[in-house]
Amino acid sequence: MPVSRKMQVYNSTIHYKCGNCAAEIDITPAASIGVATTVGILALGFWGWIVFRGSGPIDLLTLSLYGAAGLVFFWFTLSPLAAHRKNPLLKEGEPVQMSVDPVNAHIAKKPILWIENLGFLSGLIAPLIFVLCVLSGAALIGYVNFTYF
Q: CA dist 102 to 5, 31, 99, 106, 109, Å?
């Protein structure tokens, strides 16, 4: 059963405690793992686009660093997912509605908790929607500037 929820910089962690065996574990919500996955894939894709788009021959050091970064990314993404899959304290698809201590809260508490209550797929899509909104705002500002000034 969930005991407490603590806000971190970009997500929250939920502290679970088993009523039968007294096992305790901190779990990152699935939506936060989805956000980290999308942001990591975008970052690796941008880095790959810069390095591999045809600016010259690719040396072994660059390829090794890119591969190591990909392995580290998958390690840090898949280890919280593994905790979700193999932990008997979690029930599949059950969102946790739990308040956050005011000491641990910060300015982005409401949007983070809203996204985390929607699930893994919403975490995958949320960074793309955020980027789309920022780019749309920039395009609107550019259009107004070009048209009227």
A: 11, 22, 9, 8, 10
Query: What is the pLDDT, as a whole number, of residue 142?
Result: 96
* Axis-axis angle for helices 109-116, 30-52 (nearest 10): 100
Residue whose token pair is 């599949």? 92
Q: Residue with structure tokens 């894939």?
A: 41
CB neighbour list of residue 131: distance below 8 Å, 6 or more residues apart: 42
> Which residues lie closer than 8 Å to 33 by C-beta, 6 or more apart?
77, 80, 81, 84, 120, 123
pTM listed for this prediction = 0.78
Per-residue confidence (pLDDT) for residue 2, from 0 to 100:
73
Q: Name the residue among 126, 118, 19, 32 with its Cα closest to residue 83.
A: 32
Instruction: State the CB neighbour count (10 A cutoff) for residue 81.
Output: 15
In one-letter notation, the amino acid at residue 74 is F
Query: φ and ψ at 7, to 5 degrees?
Result: -80, 140
